[in-house]
Design a protein that fits this description.
Elements lengths: L7 E7 L1 H4 L14 H9 L6 E5 L7 H11 L7 E5 L2 H9 L6 H14 L5 E5 L14 H17 L3 E3 L1 H12 L1 H4 L8 H21 L1
């Protein structure tokens, strides 16, 4: 059982996988994805934990940077989770609006710099499960962004959630349709895989103490 620190605030910021259909008019809404599953799991512990979801569907790293001071900083996260990158890839192919790995890294580093008040960081690697044969080439765009997240996690002493390999392995076992039918948006089963991976990273933070 994962036991959070007393009265800790966990803030999740990211794109649609974090957003998961939350009611943005309700500050307590967590959506129906991995954040909600995490909150349910942590809520079984005895310590007090507050979970805040500020994910917004469609966001890229630059979008997180643009709303950071309004949506993220005021919550004073004890543990801050950042999950972004797949839209930085996707916009190249659906809107001809690419984000280079260099631009992604520069923006991501600015997020880390702005998160200096957080007690701990969890960085979630973006993933993509190609559904069509031609989408396999899309990984050539995503892979350098995955490398950015991994490198920054190591430098920042953040816990890393290696989602691409985990989700790919789950899709190999159970089929892409069972995990994320469009390659990105998880089913309930896919959300469970993500939540379990996050909880393992959270446990690793506790073991550092």
């Amino acid at each position: 059982m994962t036991t959070p620190a007393p009265a800790s605030t966990l803030v999740f910021v990211g794109d649609s996988i974090t957003d998961a259909g939350r009611d943005r008019g309700d500050a307590g809404s967590l959506g129906d994805g991995f954040v909600s599953l995490v909150a349910d799991e942590l809520g079984r512990g005895e310590a007090s934990v507050r979970v805040v979801n500020v994910g917004i569907a469609g966001n890229r790293a630059v979008d997180l940077a643009g709303r950071w001071e309004q949506d993220v900083a005021p919550h004073g996260a004890d543990v801050l989770t950042i999950f972004v990158g797949v839209n930085d890839m996707w916009r190249r192919f659906d809107q001809d609006d690419p984000t280079s790995a260099e631009a992604f890294e520069a923006t991501y580093r600015s997020l880390i710099a702005d998160s200096g008040g957080a007690g701990a960081l969890i960085l979630m690697e973006p993933f993509f499960l190609p559904v069509r044969a031609e989408q396999r080439a899309w990984l050539d765009d995503l892979d350098p962004k995955r490398d950015v997240v991994r490198r920054i996690a190591a430098e920042a002493n953040a816990a890393l959630v290696p989602l691409h390999d985990l989700m790919s392995a789950a899709a190999d076992r159970e089929g892409v349709a069972a995990i994320a039918p469009d390659g990105v948006h998880p089913t309930a089963r896919g959300s469970r895989v993500i939540a379990d991976a996050w909880l393992a990273a959270y446990d690793s933070l506790a073991r550092r103490d």
